[in-house]
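Write out this protein's structure.
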Amino acid sequence: MKTANELHPIDGSGVVDPPAASITIALPCVTEPWFKQIVVQFTESPLVKMVLIIHRGEGKTSFPKAEWIRTSSLHAGNTLNLICKEIKTKYFLLFRQAAQIHLESHALERFIKVAEITKAGMVYCDYYDLNGNRHLPHFLNDYQFGSVRDDFDFGYLSFFSMRAVRKALGKYGPVPRLKYAGLYDLRLKVSVEHKLFHLQEYLYSVVPQKMEEKGEAHFAYVDPRNHLIQKEMEKVLTRHLKNIGAYLRPRFKKAPSAGDFPVEASVIIPVRNRAKTINDAVHSALSQKTDFPFNIIVVDNHSTDGTTDILKALSAIDAQVKHIIPSRLDLNIGGCWNEAVSSEFCGRYAVQLDSDDLYSGPYTLQKMVDLLNTGKYAMVIGSYTLVNDRLEEIPPGLIDHREWTDANGHNNALRINGLGAPRAFNTLLLRNCKFLNVGYGEDYAMALSISRRYRIGRIYENLYLCRRWEGNTDTGLSIEASNRNNAFKDSIRSMEITARKQLNTSGRGRNKRNET
């Protein structure tokens, strides 16, 4: 059996490719019956010079133009470096994962034409999901320079310009010896000086593979089983931030401490139409045992389902409950937070509790405020357990974000989609840096902004019960809605990366690209 360093045409036929051949294909081998048809549709194209089949020892079949590479993964650094070294064509079409793909009749010509026009480092396109005889459009997002998360969806095919690849690897070094994050590294290096162009056309169709359970996929980056993968991804992202001048060394300002407040802490609960859960949330907050005074500020965003009456009754019984109904009608979750923080009732620290969630026990508030009172942190984030609407634990259970480190968490935060819960903030900072008036990502944007200059503290024990049910803002989303959410967070990252580059340029936190 030949290894990755012993490349040769499997059939030994010495096929002479036509002058038009300008594409090399790389795809992982699978043992499914349809794999042969996948390979043949490329070997029969005069535009394809060579097909590289990545395998782990599966039985080989003789194809014209085909070369077999035995290696562990298409995503491994040594595999990608080998492929890039062997490619002699102008373009490189990479199958990101094995799938039953059917190309549109002129797909390869279209990839070439778009690459020539745009001068992009990589082109990717929308596609169809095949469901029987139905072709269901699968839209992808445009790539932004802030699209640095490792799970950005490029679909199944990536069409690289080898000129851009060689330039990127020449300037920023070959792909490191990574087991999982090699393709992530290659994509980020190419993206520094070249566009990753989203072609909004359907150039192929895919028979969908069996998907992960949504809950498991959503929280894969905090699954302990994926720890080694996540450390590789973090290493790649950190190097990329250094390459573009956005890396911040762990030097932090002291959190502000001046000011008079009516209480030490306020539990903030924005709510709209949660009559089923709001009573439990408020009583969870009231049950907290602390050695300091606190209150609960519930910002009732013009509920119409009876929530308002419940809150009026609770605030009439207990003076700790402050029931605010904003005068504005255009507020979302972030805007409700701004109302609470700017109110006369807000304490020195503002602590999050969603209207359909609960604190896990009576000492959550005390533990978070104790950490803030050390003076080291401007924000503290705890850990939470996923539960169903009956408060029964569901997979993956505890979400503790142990990928965070004091030295690099503020950089790695740009790679992941969330930082955890519950969240507690220094109120003075929140009054100077407002939440975005949106219903998704407002907490992530605030955490990134704070972490740019201040230290964030972590508590890794369970402090919070997060209910997963049909009312969650990220449950059962369509492709379009999921894309909107992801594009919005990518835009947040784009702005944050710009701000960090400006911070470095101004002299604070200056970093040389080749620092380790």
